[in-house]
Specification:
The chain is mainly α and 252 residues long. The chain has 11 helices and 2 strands.
Length: 252
């Protein structure tokens, strides 16, 4: 066993302990909102950081060590727009929704970061290159990683709201396709983490820290318009990537 493996083994113990301690309803915390955020944030952040460390030490962390390219940030702007329209701006301005626990914002940020890091590390940075393989099966990698990403949200069926869960599975599949193409085009997983973080932040800040109806008419109109335009943009990008790749394949 080399030093890297020993380090991973040593760090696995506290990470597993945090996941068990905060993942179950055993914390003696009277503040229900804080307790819920801790249970959501700590296990995801611990698992995400540990997975990232494993990938870096085992040689699978290239998407997290890629050199930043400003042009890739520019290309990603439509994806950032999808995340930003998920913010409940109109509901908060009109008073249809309110933020009642701004004191827990710091913990909410950790929750959003933990979920984004864990999911992008596994479903994009690890799974997409694995599915793509040496034969560069881009379409398979995009669709299958997105399908698995969406399918994980079926566990929310235990909440009892079947319609809402099926809607969530649908849009997470589309988001998964967007994130997968982002990774294939830019090679940078941190861009995916950032967009994912912003999407989670806007989409859950009212449910986690406030109350009210945040998905009003303006929200759905903006979501439909921006989402459709970004969808076309992602498809065209993917087709462009395939076109650029085809001459190289034909020349082999």
């Amino acid at each position: 066993m080399n030093r890297r493996e020993i380090l991973l083994l040593i760090l696995f113990i506290p990470c597993a302990a945090l996941i068990v301690l905060f993942g179950f309803d055993i914390l003696p915390i009277g503040d229900a909102a804080m307790k819920k955020l801790l249970q959501d944030a700590v296990p995801r952040l611990a698992a995400g950081l540990y997975l990232l460390l494993v990938m870096l030490l085992k040689g699978f962390g290239a998407p997290f060590t890629a050199k930043f390219n400003p042009l890739h940030l520019l290309w990603s702007l439509p994806c950032f727009a999808v995340a930003l329209v998920n913010f409940p701006f109109s509901a908060l301005i009109s008073g249809k929704a309110v933020i009642g626990r701004p004191d827990l914002l710091w913990l909410f940020l950790f929750k959003c970061l933990g979920a984004a890091l864990l999911e992008e590390a596994f479903f994009r940075a690890l799974l997409v290159p694995l599915l793509r393989g040496e034969k560069r099966r881009d379409l398979l990698a995009v669709l299958l990683s997105a399908a698995l990403f969406g399918a994980t949200h079926l566990f929310n069926l235990f909440s009892g709201n079947v319609g809402a869960v099926l809607l969530q599975v649908g849009y997470t599949f589309l988001l998964g396709c967007m994130f997968a193409v982002m990774l294939l085009y830019t090679g940078n997983a941190w861009l995916c983490v950032t967009v994912h973080f912003l999407f989670n932040f806007g989409g859950t800040i009212v449910t986690d820290l406030g109350s009210g109806v945040f998905q009003d008419e303006i929200f759905w109109i903006l979501t439909a318009c921006v989402g459709s335009l970004c969808g076309v943009y992602i498809v065209l990008t993917f087709l462009f990537m395939r076109k650029q790749k085809k001459p190289k394949e034909d020349g082999k």
